[in-house]
Design a protein that fits this description.
254 residues; alpha+beta; Arc Repressor Mutant, subunit A; Chorismate lyase; 2 domains; two-stranded antiparallel ribbon; 9 helices; elongated
C-alpha cells in the first residue's frame, strides 16, 4: 500500500483503510491475528501512536477485538440464521422446543437460557399499547438471557396479560416443552400470526455488559406480537439482539 503523506487524509486513517480492506477481502480471515504495532510501524514507517490509532478505529467499528496479552484479532462472527417462515412452526413446539431453541440447535449450537426475572410488573407504554391493556396495567413478564454455545445472543422479555397465564407454567422458571406458546395453545389460545418490528441502535452500557459486546457493535431491537385468529394480542416479545451474531431472513411472495 502506498501512503499519501501529503494528502488530506490522516496517516492513521490510511492504515486503518488498508487493514479494513484486508479484512473485507478475506486476506485477514475471521480469527486471524493482525500485525502488531511494531509490525505496522516498520511496514508504514509510522509512529507507534499512529499505528495504535489505526487499530483503535477498527476496534470502534467492531471489526477487531483485543485479547489481553495476545494481540488484536479479526472478530469471529458465526451468525445465527433466523428464518421467519419456519421460526414459529408448530412442529417445533410439538418436538418440545421453543422458537429460538429450535433455530439454535438446528444449526449445530447448544442452547440454554437463564431467567432474569419472573413476575408481575407495570406494563411499559409501548407494551400496553400493543397488548391492548390500559396504560399502567399490571402484566406478567418473563425476562431471559439466551445463549448459543455459551455466547450470550439476546435478551428476551415476554409480556402477557395476567389473566391469560394465571395457573400455567408460563409463570414458572421452566415453562415446559415447547415453551410459552405451547402453554398458551394448551390453554385454548390458538396462535394465528405474528408481527415483527425491527430497529437498530447502539447498546446501552448495561446491554453492552450483559451481551458481552465489543466496541462498535450495534444491537437489533426486535419487538414481536403474537395474535390469535380474532386479532387479540397474546404476547409482546421485546428483545435485544447482538447484531453481529444474527442474520434475519424473510421469504416474501411476489
Amino acid at each position: 500500500m502506498q501512503i499519501d503523506r501529503g494528502g488530506d487524509r490522516a496517516l492513521y486513517r490510511q492504515i486503518a483503510d488498508y487493514l479494513r480492506g484486508e479484512i473485507e477481502d478475506g486476506r485477514l480471515e475471521q480469527g486471524a491475528r493482525l500485525p502488531t504495532e511494531t509490525d505496522l510501524m516498520e511496514q508504514f514507517g509510522a509512529a507507534r501512536g499512529t499505528c495504535r490509532q489505526a487499530l483503535a478505529v477498527l476496534t470502534s467499528e467492531g471489526l477487531v477485538e483485543t485479547q489481553q496479552g495476545r494481540g488484536v484479532f479479526v472478530r469471529i462472527r458465526p451468525p445465527l440464521i433466523r428464518t421467519a417462515g419456519d421460526r414459529f412452526s408448530r412442529k417445533h413446539r410439538r418436538a418440545g422446543k421453543g422458537a429460538y431453541q429450535a433455530e439454535v440447535e438446528s444449526q449445530g449450537y447448544s442452547f440454554r437460557q437463564e431467567i432474569r426475572e419472573l413476575g408481575t410488573t407495570k406494563a411499559p407504554d409501548h407494551v400496553a399499547e400493543r397488548l391492548g391493556v390500559r396504560r399502567g396495567a399490571k402484566v406478567f413478564v418473563r425476562r431471559r438471557r439466551m445463549w448459543a454455545d455459551e455466547v450470550p445472543m439476546q435478551l428476551a422479555d415476554s409480556y402477557f396479560r395476567t389473566d391469560m397465564v394465571k395457573g400455567t407454567a408460563i409463570t414458572e422458571e421452566d415453562s415446559g416443552p415447547g415453551g410459552s406458546y405451547a402453554r398458551l395453545e394448551e390453554s385454548g389460545y390458538r396462535l394465528a400470526r405474528f408481527r415483527e418490528e425491527i430497529s437498530a441502535r447502539m447498546p446501552t452500557p448495561d446491554e453492552l455488559r450483559v451481551l458481552r459486546l465489543g466496541p462498535g457493535v450495534p444491537i437489533v431491537h426486535l419487538i414481536r406480537i403474537a395474535y390469535d385468529k380474532e386479532g387479540t394480542a397474546l404476547e409482546v416479545f421485546d428483545s435485544i439482539v447482538a447484531a453481529d451474531r444474527h442474520v434475519f431472513t424473510y421469504d416474501i411472495r411476489a
